[in-house]
Amino acid sequence: MDNGKIWFITGAARGIGAEIARAALAAGHTVVATGRQLDTLQRVYGEFGDAVLPLALDVADEAQAQAAIAAALGRFGRIDVLVNNAGYGLLGAFETFGAAEIEAQFATNVFGLMHVTRAALPAMRARRSGHVVNVSSIGGVTGFEGSSVYCATKFAVTGFSESLALELAPAGIAVTVVEPGFIRTDFLDGRSVRYGTRETPDGVSSERSYSQYNGEQPGDPVRLAAAVVDLVARGQPPVHFLAGSDAVAIATTAIEKRQRELTADRALSQSVDGRF
């Protein structure tokens, strides 16, 4: 156990979180696997014995986040790698959602991530080491039609991660934001995604638009998990990591568009300056 790192992973019952946990275990690390249902975690990780500590955690509940981090520290004395993976998609035109649905999306995808990070950082700062891995999305790099609320949460995660990386670097703590494209998990089925309650204004259903890709996503979650383990093993991990060829292509197009806009309006942008 002393030869490996202690990984704390949210949303570890299935999907990307479960694959990251398996990859970390295969590399000789110890995993604190968290999720909403303890019995599910016990079933998924039962074969790994003491190498896995399963803990019930709804990240949107700050008290649960603090208790789970405390339990992990009580068992292992440290957390070397925090993987904030828990989240879900809220897809549909913006006006098809009520305030409660939007607030719930932020409560899990953004505030929940912050709850867990806030609870974990004091121990990392005390040891002057650690790595925070925040799972965002290509939807945190550029917007997508029918994903305004989801993308807003992922842009928040990306912005938070960039700023946090600057804050934590002097303490020896790394931050990496992982921005996957479309990964072949259950993200687009009913367990991980929620849709607007009525059709979009032009009559096109976001559910029909996105559900057709379920099971057809190009990204391999096993390979994504292996990449995350590789990044954590680096002496100087990146702040940003795009996962998947589609993510690379989409981000490239978005960056090129932003560069064209910057160039086209450079003079107007600079004209805003004034003399004191």
Task: Give a short summary of the structure.
With 276 residues, this protein is α/β, with parallel strands linked by helices.
Strand order of the largest sheet: 3-2-1-4-6-7-9
What portion of residues is helical? 40-55%
Q: What average pLDDT do the residues reach?
A: 90
Quickly name the level 1 CATH class: Alpha Beta
The fraction of residues assigned to DSSP E strands is 15-25%
Topology pattern, helix = H, strand = E: EHEHEHEEHEHEEHHEHH
At the third CATH level, what is the topology name?
A: Rossmann fold
CATH homologous superfamily title = NAD(P)-binding Rossmann-like Domain
- Number of strand segments: 9
Shape: globular
Secondary-structure-based class equals alpha/beta
Low-pLDDT stretches? none
Describe the structure.
The protein has 276 residues and is α/β, with parallel strands linked by helices. It contains 9 helices and 9 strands. The strands form 2 sheets. Strands 3-2-1-4-6-7-9 form a 7-stranded parallel β-sheet, sandwiched between helices. It is globular, with a radius of gyration of 19 Å. The model has no long low-confidence stretch (mean pLDDT 90).
